[in-house]
Amino acid sequence: MLKRYLSFFLIVVLLQASSAIPAFAKSKAEKDAAHAAKVKAGIVKLGVGKQARVSLKLRDKTKLSGYISEVRDDAFVVADLNTGNTTTVAYPNVTQVRGNNLSTGVKIAIWAGVAVAIIVTLYLVRGAFCDGCD
User: pTM higher than 0.85 for the full model?
Assistant: First the structure.
């Protein structure tokens, strides 16, 4: 009898738990909209101008590279560095964006490395030319 009650109790608990969990699956349209918003945020973060260089992969397997010359609400414009030809790209058509810009942290690290190299070089040169210096 105890097994029956225990089985019934477990069935009720499992049914209750399965009905309380909401569905987390998104539709394809929702996933595409979220991806497009993420791409747009990345493009806006890179900025506009010749310093805003990008490499793109599109849904139709083509690759683009150049710089971002214009940003709109529904698309952005990529200009080729060499020819200056422009291509308008809609945000949902992009599968991968790679910015070729250095972040501020990387720039600071590079300059700090240069400064350390200069200090070490000056210290070594001073030691080579100054035998009894204090």
Answer: no
